[in-house]
User: Which sequence fits this backbone?
């Protein structure tokens, strides 16, 4: 007996024990193959996500001085190590008393460049050492306000103008600020000059 009918009778697909066992093995093998990663998975790197930094890097800041005569910044940076001198407030207060006395004085003769008081119309020297500054100023003051002359004689030679008392006060201010002159050194001489002014 042959043919298709004999084939179906002998094998009875899907019903006999042998067929069932073969079907089970085929399904198991297929499922196992699907669960295994492909060979390409071992050679492919996962993509790297590029995360930008959350804190930006600050840029370098350079300070420049600005020249009022030009529209742009100067090429030289600010030197923060150069500190302007701090004036001695007590010495400046002594000179303020002198200025106040000068404002109350009546009109004085105009000083010329040849007058004694005109010595204070010169520029303050800038090359002196701080320790030697008073040794320079003291003889200059003694020549005009020293104890070797009376207050009356000082009063007689007082003059005003650019070569007179105005120049003298300005000179003393600049000198005191630049060289930090102690008020104790100035007080006696300035007091004699104030008394001479008050005699007018």
Assistant:
């Amino acid at each position: 007996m042959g043919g298709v009918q004999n084939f179906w009778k002998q094998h009875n697909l899907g019903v006999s024990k042998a067929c069932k066992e073969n079907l089970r093995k085929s399904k198991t093998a297929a499922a196992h193959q699907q669960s295994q990663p492909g060979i390409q998975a071992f050679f492919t790197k996962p993509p790297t996500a590029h995360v930008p930094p959350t804190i930006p890097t600050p840029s370098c800041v350079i300070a420049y001085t600005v020249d009022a005569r030009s529209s742009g910044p100067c090429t030289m940076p600010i030197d923060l190590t150069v500190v302007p001198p701090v004036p001695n407030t007590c010495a400046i207060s002594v000179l303020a008393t002198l200025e106040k006395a000068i404002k109350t004085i009546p009109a004085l003769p105009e000083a010329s460049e040849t007058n004694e008081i005109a010595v204070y119309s010169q520029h303050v020297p800038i090359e002196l050492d701080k320790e030697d500054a008073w040794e320079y100023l003291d003889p200059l003051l003694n020549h005009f306000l020293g104890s070797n002359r009376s207050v009356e004689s000082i009063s007689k030679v007082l003059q005003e103008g650019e070569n007179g008392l105005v120049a003298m006060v300005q000179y003393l201010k600049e000198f005191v600020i630049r060289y930090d002159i102690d008020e104790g050194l100035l007080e006696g001489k300035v007091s004699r000059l104030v008394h001479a002014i008050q005699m007018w």
